Amino acid sequence: MISIIIPTYNCEKYIKFAIESALNQTYEDKEIIVVDDGSTDNTLDIITQIADITVLIKPNGGTADALNTGIRNANGDWIKWLSADDMLYPDALELMMNSIEKMDHTDNSIFYSHYDIIDESGIITGHFEEPKTREKGELWKRFYGNGSTSLIHKKVFAKCGLFDSTMKHSEDYEFWLRCSEVYGVKLQLVDEYTLKYRVHKDQLTNKIGGSLDEEIRKKIQSLIV
Q: What DSSP string runs through 108-125?
C-alpha cells in the first residue's frame, strides 16, 4: 500500500485539486491522509466534505510536523508526499512503482521524478527534467528531488527518523541530506513525469527560497562521524 500524505495550511484555493488527483490514481492499493495544520480559512470545511480520505486535524506546527503526523498514522509500506497546491498525474503512482520494481535498494532510497510546472490556473508553463546523473556530493551544493514527487519506503523513516519538526521550511533538504550523508540512503531518479508543480505568489518556496541551506549543511556535517 502507498499512503499519500497531503499536509495543508490555508490552501482553500487548491486543496480540492490535490485531493482529487490522489483519488484518481490508477494505482489502487493506496490511502489518502490529509493533515490540516491549523488552517484558519475554509480548508477544513472543504476537506471534511470529501469522501474516501482520512482527515487529521492538528494545531499549526509547520509542514514537517504535519508530514510526521501523517507518517505516524499511515498504514502503507510507502509514503507519498503531495503538497496541497500540487497535483499528481493519474498514473503517477503506477509509473513510479513499476520503475522502482526494476531498481535496487528500493527500501533504502528516496525516489523522485521529473515534473511539469503549472500556474495558479493549472496551465502548464514549463517542464523540469532532473539530470539523469548527479555528481558525487552534489546535494551539498544544491537541493534536488522535489519533495512533492518523492516516494519513500517506511523503512527509511525507521532508519533515519522523521522530518525535523523544528524547521518551518526546507524540511525536505534537511531530510534528504541527513538520510543520504548520515545514513547512506540513496537518492534515485524515476525517469518519468508524475506531477504538476504549482508556482504561485503565496507559496513558501517563493517567499523564503533556500534561506536555511547553509544552516542545514552545518547541522548535517556535525552529525557525520
A: SEEEEEEEEEE-TTS-EE
Q: What is the dihedral of CA 141, 145, 151, 153, to 10 degrees?
A: -10
The pLDDT tens digits of the residues spanning 86-126 come to 999 999 999 999 999 999 999 999 999 999 999 999 999 99
pLDDT of residue 201: 76
Give me the DSSP letters along 150-207: -EEEHHHHHHH----TT-SS-HHHHHHHHHHHHH--EEEEEEEEEEEEE--TT-HHHH
Q: Report the number of distinct structural domains present in the chain.
A: 1
Backbone angles phi, psi at 9, to 5 degrees: -145, 115
Cβ-count burial 124-135 (b if 16+ within 10 Å, e if not):
eeeeeebeeeee
11: containing domain: 2-223
At 34, is the secondary structure helix, strand, or coil?
Answer: strand
pTM over 0.90: yes
Per-residue confidence at 2, pLDDT binned at 50, 70, 90? Answer: very high
Q: Is 138 helix (H, G, I), strand (E, B) or coil?
A: helix
Average pLDDT over residues 43-68: 97
Q: What does the DSSP 8-state code read for residue 211?
A: T
Lowest mean pLDDT, pick from 78-92, 130-144, 196-210, 211-225: 196-210
24 contacts: CB under 8 Å, gap ≥ 6:
90
CATH number for the domain harbouring residue 180: 3.90.550.10
**How far apart are alpha carbons 18 and 16 in whole angstroms?**
5
